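Continued from yesterday's entry.
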Amino acid sequence: MNSKAALLCIAIAANGRAAESQDCADCHGEIARMFAGTAHANASRKAGAQSILGSFEDSKNILFTRADGVYFRMERRGERFVQTGFANGQSRTEPFDFVIGSGRRGQSYLYWRGGLLYQLPVSYHVGSKRWVNSPGYPDGSVIFDRVIPPQCLACHTTRFRLEWKGAAMRYGNDYLLGVTCRRCHGDSEDHSQIRRGAGIELCAQCHSGPPGLSELRPDVHGNQVGLLRQSRCFSAGTGMTCVTCHNVNHVERDEVVMAERCGACHRPGQCSQALRGNCVECHMPRQRSKKISIQDYRTHRIAIYREK
């Protein structure tokens, strides 16, 4: 194993309590190195100085609410990081144990209690570079009791299972954080057991939103696969999948470069718009979130959008 692959193995193994061998990196060290920076690989991590994006500096570590006397303070205490909520002369402190979210748009945080995981009431928003109320938490409330169900961990981790401990359910210690190679390609001892993960149904497991979601609009946990299926590019029968446009093993942020893939089916001369070099900006516009007022998301319904 080369040194880069060895370091990657150590980093990925550190995300879980069980010893994990990242066999893919033995032969695919360069791919594994590039994948380590992607949103999938960083969908969940141990909380620490390198993974928590929010500031713990004085004056930058406070989230005030609109309710008098209700606020939150984020602090570092030695090697631990904690959130404290203050209300009506009382306070409650819980630790940052896990980071959820790649950090491209934001992060939420989880803590252990009684073998289960709970969400901390303060999250971090990257665009505004500030601490914010966690999604769905009413401003002015100190809530530390939102339990994290298996459905959340099923998409933000490679493995996180519930088990019986006596008469109670709890999460096992053999978890593996991040969406690693084995999540899409399967656990394997040799290549004969590896599956290719290019099918749209595989992506739909996590990118179709929560079970029962009927609304088709871009949003946090929105149904982007459902939006893609509404597109003429998809219904044309060309065999389009998510990986037609996305290389999930690389960090890809340049929308102009990604738009060049439209040229595999469309001739540049067919477009008369000024943004001819950026198909994405016109045909997959950003739309405002209904759940996070300061955030927008790019729709995956590829279409012609008329200016209002």
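--- second protein ---
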Amino acid sequence: MTHALVAQVRNTSSATESSLNDMKKAVHVAVGVVVNAQQEVLLSFRDAHQHQGNLWEFPGGKCEANERVEDALARELMEELNIQVAQAEPLCNVAHDYGDKQVLLDVWWVDKFTGVPKSNEGQRWRWVPLQTLGAYQFPAANEPILVAIRERVALIR
């Protein structure tokens, strides 16, 4: 890991801890922006009965008590989609209050993984070209993630 990446990870961890202190009741979620070689991103569809249902999201799930975010991300992507994270780096953190629920999204850019995605939990999912993300409806907390993706893609080009 390069020194710059280590510093970025440390800064992200500090931001996460600070955000968690501000949002004591927040659900801490590890989120993966999983990108394949064709520059498509993996989206999951939230069931109608779930909080923020009938919307698309980036896969991931709740961090367990005392679980590192990286470990939660790897566990959730394996449980949900049968893929193993081979390379990931922090993208952004989002603290959002829905009124009925507060979330802290710890978002990671996953550009190397093994396995073929399959729905282990019955959710719909699909690969979507990065440039078409604006055509999908996401929970409000995902808006800053979309901005971070656009910025990252612009830097890559």
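Residues 3-156 form a domain with the Nucleoside Triphosphate Pyrophosphohydrolase fold (CATH 3.90.79.10). The first strand starts at residue 27 and ends at 34. Will compare against the first tomorrow.
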